[in-house]
Amino acid sequence: MTPIEQTLQRYTEAEQRIAANLLELDNDPTYQLLRASSLQGVTLKRLGPSFAQGPTLWRWQRALSQVLTEVRKLLADEGWGSAKRNAQAAQLLRGPSVVVSVASAQGSAQSSDLLGGPVAPVEHRVTIEALIAEMRKLYEPISNGLAEVESRWRDLLPRLDAADATLKRCTDEFDSLGISDTNVRQLIQLVAATRADLSTDPLGVSLQVGADIERQVSAQASRVSDLRGGHDSLDEDFSKAENLLTDLRLTRARAAAAFSEASHKISSPGDLARVPSTEAIDGQRGLAPRLDRIRDDDGTANWQHRRTQLDAWLATATKMLAQLERAESRNRDGLDRREDLRGLLASYQAKAQALGIADEPTFGDLTDEARNELFTSPTDLAAAGALVAKVGTKLRDYQQ
After folding, report:
1. Fewer Cβ within 10 Å of end Cβ, the chain: N or C?
2. Which of 112, 15, 17, 12 is nearest to 56 (CA)?
C-alpha cells in the first residue's frame, strides 16, 4: 500500500467514525431531550454553545466526505498519469482542500471558524487534519456534557421517583389520620421543582440535593409510622392503663399495710415511707377519673389530643407505681428482717432437735427468749438479732 493509500485509509476510517458518532449523537435520547428543552443556568452556559455547533459538525462531515470521495475517484481514474494523479491526490489529502463555512455573527447562532472569532458568512479552505482536529474540539464538549447530564439523571431521577411514591403514601396516611401536614406538601413541591430543574438545568442541580431529599422524606416516613402506631395502639394502651390502675391499687394497699404493720410490730422501724391515700388513684382528681375523661373524649378528629393525654397519663401512673413499689420495699424492710430471723431461729431449733439438745435447759431458755422477742410486738430487731446469734453460737458449742 502506497503512502497516499495509507493516508486515504486513515482519513476514511476517521470519516466513518465521525459519521457514526454524529448519527449516534442525533439519535441519543438525552441529546434530543436537551435540544427540545429551554436550557437555563449552568447547563445553558456550559452546553448551549456546544449544542449550537451540532449542525456545523454535520456540514463539516459532509465537506470531509466530498474531498475523500474526490480523492477516491482520482485514484481510480486510469486516464491520469500515475505521478500526476498521486500528486493531485496528495494535494487534496495534505493541503487546504476542505471548504468550510461559518454562520454570520448576526445569525441565529454565532460560531467560530477554524481561524478565529465570529465573522460574516465566508468560506475557508483547511486541511483534512486541521478539520478533524477542530471537529474533535467541537464534539468532545457535547459528548462529555451529555455523559455528565446522564450521570445526574441516573443518580437523581430514581431518587425523585422513590420520593414521590413515599410522599404520596405519607399524604394518604396523613389524610386517613385526619392530619394536614405542611412539611409533606413542601417536600412534594421541592421534588417537583428539582425534577423541573433537571429538565432545564441538570448541571445546575447538586448531587447533594438527592441525599437531602432522601433524608427529609425518610424523616417524614418515620413520623407517619410513629403517628400510625400511636393511633392504632390507642385501644391497646387504654387496656394497659386499666391494668396499670389495678397494679397501682394493689401496690398502694400493700405499701400502706406494710407501713401500718411495721409501725406497730417493729420498734424503731427506721425511715418508713408515707403512702398516699386512695384519693390519689380513685378520688375525684385521681388517676382513674382522669383516665375515664380521656377515654370518653372519642372521635377520629381528636385522636392526637387523646394520644397526647394518654401518654402523659401513662407517664404519671408509671412514675407513681415506681414510687409505691419503693415505698412498699422500704416499709417491708423491718418486717422482712424479722421473717429472716424467725426462719434462722427455726432452722437452729430443728438442728437442736436432731442433736437431742432442744430440751436442754440452757439452750431451751435461750431459744425461748429469742422466740419471745421475735413473736411479740413490737419486735426489737437489734435485740432479736443478738439473741438469734447467741442461739447459733450455743448450737455450735454443742456440736464441737
Report:
1. C
2. 112
Q: What is the mean pLDDT of residues 55-83?
A: 84
pLDDT-derived band at 109, boundaries 50, 70, 90:
very low
Structural domain of 29: 3-147
Determine how β-strand 379-380 pairs with β-strand 98-102: unpaired
Claim: this prediction has a pTM higher than 0.85: no
Q: Please state the φ and ψ torsions of residue 123, each to the nearest 5 degrees.
A: -105, 145
Q: Are 260 and 394 members of one domain?
A: yes
Residues 103 and 68 in one domain: yes
pLDDT in tens, 340-361: 999 999 999 999 898 888 888 8
Domains identified in the chain, total number: 3
Q: What is the pLDDT of residues 51-63, one digit of tens each?
A: 888 888 999 999 9
Whole-angstrom Cα Rg for the chain: 48
Asked if residues 258 and 338 have their Cβ atoms less than 8 Å apart, the reply is no
Of 106, 125, 147, the residue that ends a domain is 147
**In the block, residue with C-alpha cell 448576526:** 106
Which grid cell sits at 99?
A: 471548504
